[in-house]
Amino acid sequence: MKIAAWNVNSLNVRLPRLLAWLEKQAPDIVCLQETKCENVRFPQDILLDAGYQSCFHGQKTYNGVAILARRDMAMSEVGCGIDDYDDPQARVIAATVDKIRAVCVYVPNGQAVGSEKFEYKMQWCRHLRRYLQEALMQHPELVVAGDFNIAPDDRDVCDPDIWRGQILCSDEERVTFRSFLSLGLVDSFRLFKQPPNVFSWWDYRQLGFIKNRGLRIDHLLISEALRSQCISSTIDRDERKGEKPSDHAPAVAEFRDRRSALLF
DNA sequence: ATGGCAATGTTTCATTGA
Fold first, then answer.
1. How far apart are CA A57 and CA A79, in angstroms?
2. Which nucleotide C1' is nearest A61 CA?
3. pLDDT tens digits along A3-58
4. What nucleotides of chain B have any atom within 7 angstroms of a protein Cβ?
5. Which pTM value belongs to this model?
6. For residue A2, which of A220, A241, A225 has the smallest C-alpha distance?
7. For the segment A219-237, what is each residue's pLDDT rounded down to a tens digit?
8. CA(A134)–C1'(B4) in Å?
9. Whole-angstrom Cα distance, residue A222 to residue A22?
10. Half-sphere exposure (CA, 13 Å, Cβ side) for A176?
């Protein structure tokens, strides 16, 4: 079982690449961010033809999230947004897929430390934490997948000295990231020995990808109940190559086959 | 010191992203 998180930076533009990627990687669950796609325009039928059902929470121009699941899996309990938090921005969608609760998140960027958008990011994250705490109580097998817009520590930053204290890397954001983990979640990527300088986002400008000047800001956090089932967690760097890539590469976690386990 | 790329709609520029 493979679960992925991918900020596609416009589903409309990325659809050909998404379809090719689904066929190549055959993930079971995919959490998409920055679909920038209103619900009425969501390419539900095309994805169904490709073998995936979907739920989506979009808006015009900005943000937008969706969860894809293989058609033969059971998807239920779809929830949009954070409960008891009126957020005009479409940044969260959750669904239960074959007993796993998947929460797809697009954390605000924050623009600059101390800015109004930074305060929104911090407040938003406090609401997300409360929401995840509740979700964990109801669903022990939980995945929080998406674009967190936080590089958890210096290993996740191409040039820590340049980025120190900057947006995506500030202490306040890193404390916030750890506050998610303290709920009983773990960064699946760090469960495994990883090579250095693995990132999930590279600036389109200044040959950022060629020079590997990136950040690891896209994450798959998993609950304790899923930890022992997780067998790998990687970034599909190749997806950042070629024609019209997203500026983010997908994060993919693989889990031991659950179907046999369900028999007992 | 600034913008540099890409996507969107308010479209031939401004805004946003990270």
1. 9
2. B8
3. 999 999 999 999 999 999 999 999 999 999 999 999 999 999 999 999 999 999 99
4. 4-10, 16-18
5. 0.96
6. A220
7. 999 999 999 999 999 999 9
8. 43
9. 22
10. 26
pLDDT at A264 over 70: no
Which residues make up the interface with nucleic strand B when CB must lie under 7 A?
A: A 7, 9-10, 12-13, 34, 36, 60-62, 108-109, 111-112, 117, 147, 149, 167-168, 201, 203-206, 215, 217, 244, 247-248
Instruction: Single out the residue of A82, A185, A177 nearest to residue A139, CA to CA.
Output: A185
SS (H, E, C) chain A: CEEEEEECCCHHHHHHHHHHHHHHHCCCEEEEECCCCCHHHCCHHHHHHCCEEEEEECCCCCCCEEEEEECCCCEEEEEECCCCCCCCCCCEEEEEECCEEEEEEECCCCCCCCCHHHHHHHHHHHHHHHHHHHHHHHCCCEEEEEECCCCCCHHHECCHHHHCCCCCCCHHHHHHHHHHHCCCEEEHHHHCCCCCCCCCEECCCCCCCCCCCEECCEEEEEEHHHHCCEEEEEECHHHHCCCCCCCECCEEEEECCCHHHHCC
Q: Which residue is nearest to nucleotide B3 (CA to C1')?
A: A205
pLDDT of residue A260: 58
**Tokens encoding A126:** 């406090």
Averaged pLDDT, A170-182: 98
Distance in Å from B11's C1' to A61's CA comes to 14
Shortest CA–C1' contact from A208: which nucleotide?
B5
